[in-house]
Amino acid sequence: PADRLHLLPNAIALAGAGDLEQTTTRSGVRVYPTRAIRRKNLGEFLLWALLEPSDEWWITLAPTSTEDRLYYDRWKAWTAQHKLPVRFEAGANRPFSEVLAEAGAVISTSITEGFGLAFAEPWLAGKPLCGRALRDITRDLETDGLDLSCLYDELRVPADLLPEAALRQAVQDALVRIHKAFGLPLPDHAMDRALTMIRSDQGIEFGRIGENLQSMILQRLAEDPGRAAGMTPRTLAPWDPDDPRILQNRDLLVSQYGLLAYRERLLTLYQSVLAAPISTVEAPAGDRTLLDCFLAPEKLHIARS
User: Fold this and answer.
1) Is residue 218 very low, low, confident or very high in pLDDT (cuts 50, 70, 90)?
2) Could you tell me the residue ranges of all domains in the chain?
3) Which end of the chain, N or C, is more open, meaning fewer C-beta atoms within 10 Å of its C-beta?
């Protein structure tokens, strides 16, 4: 029953605050504070580094799994080949808070998150945020007043940067792979449903197409940077260390999601559970509603498949 469901958002607190005060900010450094697993969408991060080479671009940690490492090493090799101003594993031997303190801005290009700390921690550190939004993740934060208007919802690149046949084959392979893993056939019109979200009059949604296709687009942009003129957005949101959103967002997060607020929520939840009568709940037999929501072709992101 709905009255037995309780929401307990994660507490938000930033460790190592002293490093933020003792370390000098470098305005030209953009930091992606993450472990570079596939769902962090490293190709999109490198796309911005390619288009804005006057800045430094740091990513903090390497992945540890074999599959993630394979893609990561390919991206590192491509970056070295094209001499992009990217520093990999910038946080491997330093405290996270120290690396964050040096950032002029923080960036996220992730296509999947859990609670969404990536959209909260930069503000606590007094840093502006840029990159990709995940509204399904941040909706609660934004409803409470967090201003994330600095983020884009999708990144469209010109469709002629990618052969149509390659796109269709990659989408088909991903759809089959996902549904086969669950022993399910493809739903009706799966290809068309997926392509409707990936391709539009505004171009191809870069975050949905996976590393192999992303690398093809990056190569073409490296050879002819002028073709990026058709991207939407064409640039990241500008950032200003004096942007009033930084203090506004930080104050909101501390008051709404800090440890004291978490304590009050948790106590209220315990009291509600203790006061509720004990009853049984039967799960619906054979119901696939939730699974179908996760597997819907419209939600396809190839790097998650």
Assistant:
1) very high
2) 1-154+233-275, 156-224
3) N
